[in-house]
Amino acid sequence: MRLRQIALASNDLDAATHALAGVFGLKVAYNDPHIDHYGLKNAVLPAGTGFLEVVQPITPTASAARFLSRRGGDAGYMVILQTADAAAERARAADLGVRVVDDIDTPTYRCAHFHPADFGGMLVSFDQQRTVSDYLDPYGDWYPAGPDWRDARTGTVVDLAGLQLSNPEPHGLAALWSKLIGAPLDQANPLRLPLTHGEVSFCEGDGPMTWISRIDLKVADPEDVLDRARGDGLDVDDDGVLIGGVRFRPVE
Asked: Structural domains in the chain?
């Protein structure tokens, strides 16, 4: 599987996208007009050959609104994994007891969203872009980013490298994700789950919830990115810059 998109939930979509643009030079490629039925508005920003999404609730009953209330503010919301055969991966996960909460099946795109409780507290989706023959094609079509996403790419971010999930029992969460995704953990580091493209790591966190504590972006010049973040007055530490409730770490 390929790490293709990570979504943040925010109470202020414009502020979050403005920060990502200012620090990482990203541009909004698409505002999906169809997600209002989830009670959301969004912005999708190409990050090299991956994507960052920011969603904001527009109704108080939206699941993202409840998520923001539980988290007490902006936070990482969803992980989207691209696969060669979403139907087969969906069936395999369902056989393991994972509940499907949303299923989209069109001639060009197939995806299944899984119940967060079954993925240890994180909303996860297995997606297939049916208009590409190779799901690892770095510039292949990607329905959630709209038809013109390639034109919105910028030079600062090279790729979406990985994410880190925090949980009170990270070893248990790592084992669960390995089982549900069907990929082995790194033998040298059982808190690292390598994917066909990208990776997921796990660390111990405070509190009962699972959350995205860090997103790693491969960039041309990490120090330049951090200097820009400091210049914008953002919170910067050894794990990167805080945007939308998540630490973004620039890596080479």
From this structure: 2-251 (3.10.180.10)
